[in-house]
Structure to design on (376 residues):
C-alpha cells in the first residue's frame, strides 16, 4: 500500500479495532501509528483492505459520486463513450466496481462488500451523467461468495432489452447484457481487433475461441476472403451468427468445437491459414494453475504456428493475470522452437485505453495481445 498498490492482504495486517465490522470504511495506520489512507475492510476476504485513497478524508456518497464522474470524464475525453468500460475498478479509484457501456445500456458489477453499500450512489450518478435506457446488475460472480455476498442479477434502473446493439470499429455488435459472459462482451480487445486490419485482405483466417464472433467479424470487415470461427459454446455461436447476419457477412463459417481438439485435427490434416487468432479464456486462474496453463498456451500456439503459411500472422492473447508478460514471451519462444519456425514480434499490445492500468499494480496489466509474423 505504501508504494501505491490498492490491495492489502490479511497476512500484512497486524490487527483491526474490535468495533470494526465487515464492509466498513476504515483508516489504515502504519506500524508507527501514521495514517496512510482509507480503505474498505472485509476480514472474510483474502484481500482484507481495498484502498480508496492514500489520504485521511471522509468517504461518503459525495466522494463516490465524484469518482464516478471522473471515470466518465476520462472516457468522454478518450472519445469512446457508447461502447466502453466506464469504470475499471481499482484503476478508477473504485475498488471492485466494474461498469460497461453498451450503447444506451449499462452493465454493473460490484465484487466488494464495502463498495456494495454505495450501489445506489453509483447508479444515481450514472443515470444523472449518461441518462441511459437502463442499468443491469451482473453480480452473478462466484467470487462474491468469498466476500460474504450473494450472487444476483436484475434491473437497477430504467429498462433493458434482451439484446443491445452497439457499434465497434464500424461494426454492428449484438450484446446479451443479461446472460452473456462477464458483463456481456469483451470490450478490452476493441483496439486489438482494429489492429488486425493490415493482415486481413484476401486472407484465409482462423479465429479460435471466437465467443460472439468479434475478431472474426473484424477479419471479414477488413477484407478476409474466408473466415472460420470456432467456439465450444453453442449459445455464444448463436450470437456470433446473428452478428454476422446483421453485418451482411456470408463468408464466416462457425464451428462448435473444443479449441485444442480442433487445432489438433486441422494441424494433422495439414490445413493452412494466412491469419490465425487465439483468444482463449484465462487458462491460469491463479499462480497454482500456472504450470498447467503454460502447457495449454504452448500447445495451441505451437499448433497455430505450424498451420500458418510462410509470412503468416498469428494474433495470440492471454487474459490470465498470473501469466506475466515475460512468461508469455518465453512460452512463445518455446512454441516457435518446437514448431521449428522463426517469428517476428510486430506488435505487443494490452487492453484498450478505457481499461487503464496502475503502475503499482501488476494485476491491472492482465491482457497480453501479441501480433507475430511466422517464417518457415
Amino acid at each position: 500500500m505504501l508504494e501505491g498498490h490498492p490491495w492489502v492482504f490479511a497476512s500484512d495486517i497486524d490487527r483491526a479495532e474490535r468495533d470494526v465490522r465487515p464492509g466498513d470504511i476504515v483508516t489504515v495506520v502504519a506500524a508507527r501509528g501514521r495514517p496512510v489512507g482509507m480503505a474498505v475492510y472485509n476480514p472474510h476476504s483474502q484481500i482484507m483492505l481495498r484502498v480508496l485513497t492514500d489520504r485521511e478524508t471522509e468517504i461518503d456518497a459525495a466522494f463516490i459520486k465524484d469518482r464516478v464522474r471522473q471515470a466518465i470524464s476520462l472516457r468522454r475525453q478518450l472519445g469512446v463513450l457508447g461502447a466502453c468500460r466506464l469504470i475499471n475498478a481499482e484503476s478508477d479509484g473504485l475498488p471492485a466496481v466494474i461498469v460497461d457501456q453498451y450503447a444506451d445500456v449499462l452493465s454493473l458489477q460490484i465484487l466488494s462488500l464495502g463498495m456494495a453499500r454505495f450501489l445506489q450512489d453509483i447508479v444515481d450518478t450514472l443515470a444523472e451523467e449518461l441518462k441511459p435506457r437502463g442499468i443491469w446488475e451482473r453480480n452473478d460472480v462466484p467470487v462474491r461468495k468469498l466476500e460474504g455476498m450473494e450472487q444476483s442479477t436484475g434491473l437497477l434502473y430504467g429498462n433493458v432489452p434482451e439484446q443491445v446493439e452497439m457499434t465497434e470499429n464500424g461494426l454492428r455488435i449484438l450484446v446479451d447484457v443479461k446472460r452473456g459472459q462477464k458483463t456481456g462482451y469483451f470490450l478490452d480487445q476493441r483496439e486489438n481487433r482494429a489492429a488486425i486490419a493490415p493482415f486481413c485482405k484476401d486472407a484465409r483466417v482462423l479465429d479460435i475461441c471466437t465467443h460472439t464472433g468479434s475478431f472474426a467479424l473484424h477479419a471479414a470487415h477488413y477484407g478476409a476472403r474466408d473466415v472460420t470461427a470456432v467456439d465450444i459454446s453453442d449459445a455464444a455461436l448463436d450470437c456470433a451468427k446473428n452478428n454476422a447476419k446483421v453485418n451482411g457477412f456470408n463468408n464466416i463459417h462457425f464451428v462448435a468445437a473444443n479449441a485444442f481438439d480442433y487445432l489438433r485435427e486441422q494441424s494433422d490434416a495439414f490445413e493452412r491459414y494466412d491469419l490465425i487468432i487465439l483468444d482463449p479464456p484465462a487458462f491460469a486462474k491463479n499462480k497454482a494453475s500456472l504450470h498447467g496453463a503454460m502447457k495449454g498456451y504452448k500447445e495451441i500456439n505451437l499448433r497455430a504456428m505450424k498451420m500458418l503459411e510462410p509470412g503468416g500472422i498469428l494474433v495470440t492473447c492471454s487474459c490470465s493475470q498470473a501469466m506475466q508478460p515475460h512468461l508469455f514471451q518465453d512460452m512463445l519462444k518455446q512454441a516457435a522452437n518446437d514448431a521449428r519456425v522463426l517469428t517476428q514480434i510486430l506488435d505487443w499490445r494490452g487492453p484498450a485505453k478505457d481499461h487503464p492500468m496502475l503502475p503499482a499494480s501488476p494485476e491491472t496489466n492482465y491482457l497480453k495481445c501479441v501480433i507475430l509474423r511466422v517464417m518457415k
Q: What stands out?
A: The chain has a mean pLDDT of 94.
